[in-house]
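Dear support,

I submitted the protein below through the web form. The confirmation email said the job was done, but the results page showed an empty box. After a refresh the structure appeared. I'm attaching both so you can tell me whether what I see now is the final result or a partial one.
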Amino acid sequence: MLEITMVLIAVAILFLLYQLTLAKTIWERLVALNLIAVKIALIMTVYAVYSGQSGLLDIILTYSIIGFMTVIVLTRFVLKGGRLK
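What the results page shows now:
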C-alpha cells in the first residue's frame, strides 16, 4: 500500500512539473512550485511514518519551512518588479 501511495504522489508531481513548464503566468508557476515542495514533503512523511524513523520528521519540517519561505521570497520579488527595476 505504501508503494502505491508514493507512486500516486510521484505522478501528481509529474503533472505539476508539466503545469510548471506550461503555465502562462508567473503566479501559476509559483503555485505549482509550492505544490511540488508540499508533495515532496508528503512523500518523505509517508516514508518516515512507514519506516518508523521519527528523526526524519524534523528534517521534513525544516524542508517544508524552507519551501514555504522560498515561495514567499519569490512572490515578494515578483511583486516588487523582479529584474525590471
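Response: this is the final, complete result; the empty box was a page-load delay. The chain has one domain: 2-79.
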